[in-house]
From TrEMBL:
Disulfide bonds join C97-C177. Residues 41-292 form the G-protein coupled receptors family 1 profile domain. Its main location: membrane. Coiled coil: none annotated. The keyword DNA-binding does not apply. PANTHER family: G-PROTEIN COUPLED RECEPTOR, P2Y PURINOCEPTOR 8. InterPro entries: GPCR_Rhodpsn, GPCR_Rhodpsn_7TM, Protea_act_rcpt. This is P2Y purinoceptor 8. Keywords: Cell membrane, Disulfide bond, G-protein coupled receptor, Glycoprotein, Membrane, Receptor, Transducer, Transmembrane, Transmembrane helix.
């Protein structure tokens, strides 16, 4: 987004970016990797969440919502790849440009808000389990929250839905898509300031602060408990979420604010750095399945069953448990005298084992 005037004259830095083949190829390669990991990882995740996980708790609803937005991004990125490999020439018209741009940015900000919602759900379940028990268990509340997220994001991004985001550059004879925005997209600088403030502070900084507070409080709460496994998972989940915020979302939003201020007030540009930061923002869709793994015990158990990683149903693990036991369990039998009286434990299925959330 260069925020240029209504004339077609661009600054040299932006023009050089459009002519830099190496940059466009490098970004396209990153997007190709993201698409492959995104579609495989999130396709597998949505199958587990929709068809193998029950009941649909609020956390599962949030994860389904996050997975669907990630899959939408994975479906939209091939168009961005083709656009860049064709030398930033957009051939699909302004409506398709607006639609795909909206998918790109709604994925980013809906992901941020959904991670905040998952963090709040963890906070309510661990720190305030009794006070918010009824609210937290209502699946309808999670569904309504997802619709509210979309309402907030689409309200902030409304200018992108009502503007022709294509731009013809006569110097290069190309038509770009969302790489050049006119200053008259919004009526005045106050409107630009409100648009920028809403994107950076309302859709990024505020959710980030809430998420950090929730996970720090959860970790402090679990630190005094004896459930070390649960504490380790909570710490890993917090680390993954903070990594996504720090390395995927923060650079893009900071550079967005920096570039827009430079263009509006100083006629300078940081667009090349901002363009590269968009690659980082897409990586979140590859990391989200790890969030599901550490945030949902049901998802964890179903995944272990599918990939044959049952913690207790493995023959090797049960043999070891029986061997280390000092007392003979009534569920253990002797399997043949010619096998040195090896014991095999008949353990229940991992799907029947429940651990605290």
């Amino acid at each position: 987004m260069t925020g240029n005037s209504s004339s077609s004259r661009l600054d040299n830095a932006t023009l050089s970016l459009f002519q830099n083949t190496n940059t466009s190829v490098a970004i396209s390669l990153v997007y190709l990797v993201v698409v492959a990991i995104n579609l495989v990882g999130n396709g597998f995740s949505i199958w587990i969440l929709l068809f193998r996980t029950s009941p649909k708790t609020p956390s599962i609803v949030f994860m389904i919502h996050l997975t669907l937005t990630d899959l939408a991004l994975g479906a939209a990125l091939p168009f961005q790849i083709a656009y860049q490999l064709q030398g930033y020439q957009w051939n699909l018209g302004p409506n398709m440009c607006s639609f795909l741009t909206l998918i790109f940015y709604t994925n980013m900000y809906c992901s941020i808000l959904t991670m905040m919602a998952i963090g709040i759900d963890r906070y309510l379940g661990i720190v305030r389990p009794m006070l918010f028990r009824q609210i937290r268990r209502r699946k309808s509340m999670a569904v309504v929250s997802c619709f509210l997220m979309w309402g907030v994001v689409l309200s902030v991004l409304y200018p992108l839905m009502t503007t022709d985001l294509t731009f013809y550059i006569p110097e290069l004879h190309i038509t770009t898509c969302f790489d050049v925005l006119k200053k008259d997209m919004l009526p005045n600088q106050a409107a630009w300031a409100a648009f920028l403030f809403s994107m950076v502070f309302l859709l990024f900084l505020f959710p980030f602060c809430v998420t950090v507070f929730c996970y720090i409080t959860v970790i402090r709460k679990l630190a005094s408990d004896s459930k070390t496994a649960q504490k380790k998972r909570a710490i890993r989940l917090a680390i993954i979420v903070l990594v996504v915020f720090t390395f995927c979302f923060a650079p893009n939003n900071i550079l967005l604010m920096t570039h827009t201020i430079l263009r509006l007030f100083y006629e300078k540009s940081a667009y090349q750095a901002y363009k590269l930061s968009l690659c980082l923002s897409c990586l979140n869709s590859c990391l989200d399945p790890f969030i599901y793994y550490f945030a949902s015990k049901d998802f964890r158990q179903k995944l272990r069953q599918i990939v044959n990683l049952h913690t207790l149903s493995s023959v090797d693990s049960t043999k070891m448990e029986c061997k280390e036991s000092t007392l003979y369990s009534p569920h253990c039998t002797v399997e043949g005298q010619n096998r040195e009286h090896r014991k095999v434990c008949l353990t229940p299925s991992t799907s029947q084992l429940k651990e605290p959330e």
